Amino acid sequence: MVESKCVVWITGLSAAGKTTLGEALVDKIKEYSVPVVFLDGDSLRKALGELSTHSREDRLRLASTYSRFCKYLADQNILVVIATVALFSEIHSWNRNNLSNYLEVFLDVPLDELKRRDPKGLYKKFQTGQLKNMAGLDLDVDFPNSPHLHFKYEQRLSPSEMAEIIIQHMKSKSYLI
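Given the sequence above, the corresponding structure tokens read:
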């Protein structure tokens, strides 16, 4: 049996830059002529159906679906880049135990900066009481204990620079072959 392709799991709170980094990374991976698919949490949620609630249980169930779908694609020899909040220790653990070539990337951005960015207006909606169960605010999350790559906001790296670091890490693990 052929070994599975890599799954790059980009995680962080809303507005951390996951989608932007994922798109930059996919562009760089395409330079290697490797079959790659980009899965964005917002797009996946729309494709798979909205959550009935945004409770921890519903979010965990959806994140579990993402993990299994990533495994399915990786087992088909497709490199997967996924950008999703999915900050649950159960998911991180499942991914490490079930995805043979798993690369966890954590975007660590301070809450003040996330609120400043707020491209979807989610933090503002939370602040005005229009939104509940916001990950990292009134919904507890589990930040990764030991991500393979941990990008801190203070590093001030561009998405392109982070993508290049990820590429170098993938090369060192033979994930691009």
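The two ends are 16 Å apart (CA to CA). Try to locate this feature in the token string yourself.
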